[in-house]
Amino acid sequence: MRHSGFFDKFFSVIAFLENLVCYTGILGVTFLVFFNVLNRYLFRFEIMWVGDFSLYIFMIFVFACIVLTTREQGHTSVEVLVQKVAEKSPGAEKPYRLFLMVLSFATAAVFTIPVLHFAQRSMRYPQWGTLVRWFNTSWIMQAMLVMMVLILAHMIRSMIIEIHTRPSREKPGAE
Q1: In a domain, 172, yes or no
Q2: Exposed/middle/buried for 125, CB within 10 Å: 0-12, 13-18, 19+?
Q3: Mean pLDDT, consecutive 10-residue segments, the chain of 175 residues?
Q4: In 3D, which of 86, 96, 73, 84 has the Cα closest to residue 170?
Q5: Would residue 153 count as lying in a domain?
Q6: N or C: which end of the chain has fewer CB within 10 A?
Q7: Among 76, 94, 67, 79, CA closest to 163
Q8: Would residue 170 count as lying in a domain?
Q9: Are 112 and 152 in contact (CB under 8 A)?
């Protein structure tokens, strides 16, 4: 493949950004919640926007973690069925894995359609925050659309990698 170098570099940059968002998100949320609890109960001084801000950071963090989980192929697949198929007929494991990947991709694509409509509506009709009235919260739906697009991109990449890898005939540890 001629463009594989570009796509590898592109996905490595995307992976770096996803990891960065996940790590800073968890650290940021932890710090802000700790700061808010400390202010509220020790100093008896609550800063209202800190709670909202930590919630917004948490939402970005959750979206990024869903994408990261999809990229690493964790928690989004049921490996027990794949292992049972591999035990019964080793040649059917790869087609079965591809079938599950295509099914997962189709499901994510179906869910992307309403997310796209919600994101388009959020761009046309902004929604403003409850405690911080000047803060536009429409970005939440737009961030969800970005999450779905990244999930679909990672799924396509995983399917391409799965198609181009040769199935192993040996079981790990067997000699």
Answers
A1: no
A2: exposed
A3: 74 88 88 87 80 82 85 68 74 80 90 93 83 75 90 89 70 46
A4: 86
A5: yes
A6: C
A7: 94
A8: no
A9: yes
